[in-house]
Amino acid sequence: MKTRNVLITGLGAISPLGLSAEELWKGICEGVCGLKEITAFDASGFECRIAGEAPEFKVNKFVPKYHRKATKLMSRDIQLAVVAADDAVRSSGLITKAIDPDNVSIDPERFAINIGSGMISCDLPELAPAVAASLVDGKFNIKAWGEEGISKITPLWLLKYLPNMLACHVGIIHDIRGPGNNITLAEVSGLVSVIEAAQTIDRGDSDAALAGAAEAKINPVVLMRQQLLKRSFTGSCDPPETACRPFDKNARGSVFSEGGGIAVLEDSDTAASRNAKVYAQIAGCGQSMSLNKKFECLEPGGKGLEIAVTAALKDAGITAAEIDLVLPHGTGVAGDDAAEAAALSRVFGTEAQRVYFLPTKSMIGHCGAASGIIDIILACKAMENSYIPAAKNCEENISGLKISDKPIEKKINYALCCGYTFGGQTAAVVLKNPEVK
Questions:
Q1: Which of 16, 163, 168, 193 is an S-S bond match for 52, by CB 3.0 to 4.6 Å?
Q2: Spatial contact of 428 and 283, defined as CB atoms under 8 Å apart
Q3: Closest by CA position to 356, among listed 390, 398, 403, 313
Q4: Is residue 173 a part of any domain in this protein?
């Protein structure tokens, strides 16, 4: 039973479209595509040589002086979370130790943190000398690794790549001392982080929380894995902005990217006491587990996703007929898109031709763990502005879902964000417009 209303009062993001949630929203509204030729490393040997890279930034700018030494131990994933968290806190109007240590506006012990992560891959230049020293007759030798190879790695190396370090660094920066967790559920990490943070507030264990996820998928190890699993885009990348085509007849795979998203969640009484701006209410949440034996793709029919979405609607106390906007997972992998569309079609029935579906990966790429929270941020902005941006790269829609290539001005009372992983986890979150009583 819900005992408290959980509101979203702050939005923060870093994406291929910019260093803030506002830049992300502006880019989506203008139809800007953040997918370009990879510059982070030499990708000439890859089938897909495009990705969504975030604009250049210096993480020190987003870290107070008392924590800057620690930036040496921040992987790219951690840095993305730090930037998104800074944006979220500032947009919420909350004052933490990092913003102004003399005027902190929230009890650190009543402030929770849930930040999800994906599979954090190390930078090859850090690991390559150690591996090279561990080769015997051209093959990796564990004895050589223990005797010589491991000594080539700095003793603190692992601290850059532990999944809990995203929440750890952000928590230290903003002096968050309440309940905390790191969710490592691949593509639904951001969604589940929001769900768990909302439940923490709902049961009275905190008054506010930072919730979201970050992942840097522009890494040769990560991209090679996606290529071998046949998930990444194949074909001509010219022009790059037409490559990722969720729910389109000519879909040829995902284009991967890096990004982070953080939302500030608050109990309604706490938010009201400081007259906080409210973007949305967390109205309902749902999760499921339904593993496909062929793990590299979503199960045919998307039964697990159907369960999660149905549970979220039930939790919100509404029907599919009351949803105005859906931000689906929509990867651009044809088989997975078909399975997701089948699941959503079963949930929405004839309403699938009334509700607007906005797949976003055609413009920002697949941000892995951050995908769901970035969609939540965009849903909040759409709700705030009564505006649904145009979908891109879906000229031949074969999903049976209503996807508009033109922007729509429309009041959004309820929005749904949903996602799935290749491990079988699915999650869905229903957002309610604060103007709806």
A1: 16
A2: no
A3: 403
A4: yes
8 Å CB contact between 265 and 8: yes
How far apart, in whole angstroms, are the C-alpha atoms of residue 186 and residue 371? 10
The domain that holds 258 is classified in CATH as: 3.40.47.10
Residue 142 lies in a domain: no
Task: Count other Cβ atoms within 10 Å, centred on residue 53.
Answer: 21
Strands (E), 104-257: 111-117, 135-136, 139-140, 180-181, 208-216
pLDDT tens track for 51-103: 999 999 999 999 999 999 999 999 999 999 999 999 999 999 999 999 999 99
CA 390 – CA 150 distance, rounded (Å): 51
pLDDT in tens, 171-204: 999 999 999 999 999 999 999 999 999 999 999 9
Instruction: Name the percent of the chain lying above pLDDT 70.
Output: 99
Supply angle C-alpha 283, 400, 412, rounded to 5: 30
Q: Enumerate the β-bridge partners of residue 36.
A: 51
pLDDT value at position 2?
Answer: 62
Q: Which helix (H) or strand (E) holds 192?
A: helix 189-202
Can you give the pTM of this predicted structure? 0.96
Reduce the DSSP state of residue 388 to 3 states and report it. strand
Q: Fill in the DSSP letter of residue 235.
A: S
Region 376-383: what's the mean pLDDT?
98
Q: How many domains does one find in the chain?
A: 1
Residue indicated by tokens 């604009």: 55
The boundaries of the domain holding residue 299 are 6-121+161-432
pLDDT higher than 60, residue 144 = yes
State how far the Cα of 244 lies from the Cα of 334, in Å rounded to an integer: 11
Tokens 């929770």 sit on residue = 112
Would residue 136 count as lying in a domain? no
Residue with tokens 């510059």: 39
How sure is the predictor about 294, in pLDDT bands with cuts at 50, 70 and 90?
confident
Map residue 50 onto helix, strand or coil.
Answer: strand
Burial of 94 (0-12, 13-18, 19+ CB in 10 A): buried
Which pLDDT belongs to residue 71? Answer: 95
Contact 304, 185 (CB under 8 A): no
Whether 351 shows a pLDDT value over 50: the answer reads yes
**Spatial separation of the C-alpha atoms in residues 259 and 216, rounded to whole Å:** 6
CA distances from 80 to 70, 201, 212, 259, 373 (A): 15, 25, 11, 6, 13
Rounded mean pLDDT, 125-152: 92
